[in-house]
Amino acid sequence: MLRLSDLHASYGSAPVVQGVSLTVEKGETVALLGPNGAGKSTLLAAITGTIAERRGEIFFENENLVKEKSHAIVARGVALVPEGRLVFVPFSVEDNLRLGAVRLRGGREAMRERFAYVYGLFPRLNERRSQRAGTLSGGEQQMLAIGRALMSHPRLLLLDEPFLGLAPLVVLEIRNALEKLRKSGLTLLIVEQKLDIALAFAQRAYVLIKGRVALEETTARLAQRAELADLYFSLATSSAASARPSL
Amino acid sequence: MRDFLELAVSAAASGCVYGLVALAYLLIMRPTGIVNFAVGEWAMLGAFGAYVASSVVQLPYAAGVAAVLLAMVAAGWLTERIAVRPLVERGAPVLAPILALLGMLVVFRESISLMFSPDPYPVPYAFGFGRLELGPLAGSYQSFFIIAVSLVVFAATWLFFERTLAGKCFEAVALNRRAAALMGINLARVTTLSFAAGAAVAGLAGVVAGANISAHYLMGVPLAIQGFTALVVGGVGRVEGALLGGLLLAFAEQLTIRYAPIPAGYAQGVPFLLLMLFLLLRPTGLLSARERSG
Fold first, then answer.
1. A134/B291 CB distance under 8 A
2. Residues A55 and A110 in one domain
């Protein structure tokens, strides 16, 4: 469904993503792991077209998105739940959700169906539909961010650290919702720093170190690795050694 | 009292013109962050357009205004394509299009000065020259017309932003461009439409104000300064703030001219004085903008 090939992305002259290739199959849940500054969020920005400097190939359902603008990418069925949520705080929950449906096709009937779907997934949003997003708790704002992304009826949902800074009970609630999405057949690509959450949730994982894929593994095999606790450190060390020119 | 009420009608009309210019600034500034000082020149183009439509082409007033507004939409669209989009697409800092638009200001003014002599050109009144009394309020037909038209424009703009999904899209871009892009909002289209709408509103200000002050190639800069002052006084970010700022500025000007024991020429300093006072004491203006995304 999604195939990245030799993808590069940069902020000005600073390269962040450096030749990443990966695939995500339809209905699969894939985790993108890595330490801070590895380029995980930049990779998602490159897929969604919110970073200008990118080259390589981003094939989504056999269409190359690398030259597409972000609005066209959303229309093709890719949605991102960004890190930090970025909800529109002065707007009501309902208006935030409505904005998520800007690219939804099918008129009012489709809009009604999406509202019902999102409110079914997060009943708390339904209870707070008229409330300003800025007055919601952090967990509710994360639910809103996920619900808003779902309003466009995406076929691929990208999530950037969806559990960051949330209380354990809220993490559980959001995990349950994501589990429902996964079971419904939605393809998910999740950026996560915490290995335990990612391993429990995804089927495969890519580990990014300094903008490059350092490891691709099924999560079942990844969980069995002896150096799991120091995975990022050992991968960073080995990638630095391989990058060092030989004498 | 009668004198004051007559003055109030005239001040309200001037305030509405300043408010329209402030609204033109706002329509562009909110979603793009770009301060377009060429709005005054757009008002000048609108006034000259009204002169051409009435005196050269001899269109009826309503048709002439409609033609001018359409031409202004095209001017705004063209300005964005020439001076803004190429820079934004290359990731230039926001100062770059602001400077490019200052260049456009010169282009507009000098183009008009080449096409027309430096004499004032008559712009038609909507209902001719006459005096209307509404209870204790009295003023020229044109003053009441300006007030009515401005209120309709402000009400329509407010309703657009508050009650329609398209308006929310504009607001979303103003609140957080990245989040808006992730919703599937076409940022380039919002920028183009904001320039087209800003040009139309500024052009309308020129059309209605031109009847009182005539079209002249140097009329743009004073209007740009008064509109900018109204924007700062009212609060950068709210539609109703632009009108409030315009009214406050016009009343301060006219009350100073009428009642302050100073030479009339000094009253021209009122916008600058208000601008400095607000920048020093309340830089957010009377009405604060909405907070950004969280």
1. yes
2. no
